[in-house]
Amino acid sequence: MNIEDFRREYLLQGLKRSDLHDDPTEQFETWLAQAVSGGIADPTAMVLATVDANGRPWQRMVLLKDFGHQGFVFYTNSDSNKAQDIAANASVCLHFPWNVLERQVIVAGNAAKISNVETARYFLSRPRESQLAAWASAQSRPISARQVLLEKFAQMQEKFKQGEIPVPAFWSGYRVVPRELEFWQGGANRLHDRFRYLRNAKDGWDIRRLAP
User: Residues that bind FMN, according to the entry (predicted)?
Assistant: First the structure.
C-alpha cells in the first residue's frame, strides 16, 4: 500500500463571500443543518484540541451539545485530562470534519465552565444509563480491566435505583467563546475556499478570504 496514491478531487461546490452570513454563528447554523440533512454520521462530533501546562497538545472527539452567539458547549468530567488542560490553559480549538460535504469548520477561542444550573439542566435530560456512566467513570484515569468499569456501573445502578440521579460534583459543561472561526470548502486542483471570521474591537466580525 502506497499512501501517496490516496487522493481525490473536491468538486461538490465552491464558496464565495456572498454565500456567507455576516455573523459566524448564523453561518455555522446553516452548515450544521446541511450536515444533518446531508446524512453525515455524528454531525455534532468535533475534535477538541487542548494544550497542557507543559505545552503538550492533545486532541479527542467530543459532542457539541449547544451553540449560539455566546459560544459552543460540550460536557465532560471536570477531573478529566481535557478539563485539567483547560484549567492550565483555557485556549482551545474545535474542528468539525464534515468530509462528506468537503467541508470543515475550525473554531479557536477560550473555554470556561458554564453555570451549575445549565449543567444540571442538561445532565437531567440525558438517558439514565448515561447519567450512571458519568458516576461510574473516573475519566482519563487508568483502570486494570473493563470488568472494573462494569462493576462500578452496576454499583451505581444499585446506589441510584430509586429517584433522580444527582449531578456529580465532578461533572460540568464548558463553553468555548470564539475569537476566530474558519469555514473551509474543498475546491478543484487543491484551490480550496477558506474564509476566516476574526472578532474585532467593536465585538463584531471581520471576514477574510485566505489562500488555500
Answer: 60-65, 75-76, 82, 104, 139-140, 184, 194
Q: Which position among 121, 190, 208, 209 bears the catalytic label?
A: 190
Cell of 142: 487508568
CB proximity list for 193: less than 8 A, separation 6 or greater: 14, 15, 16, 184, 185, 187, 209, 212
Q: Is 10 annotated as a binding residue?
A: no
List, for residues 79-103, the tens digit of each pLDDT value. 999 999 999 999 999 999 999 999 9
Would you say 61 is a known binding-site residue?
A: yes
Is 190 a catalytic site residue?
yes
Express each pLDDT in 112-166 by its tens digit. Answer: 999 999 999 999 999 999 999 999 999 999 999 999 999 999 999 999 999 999 9
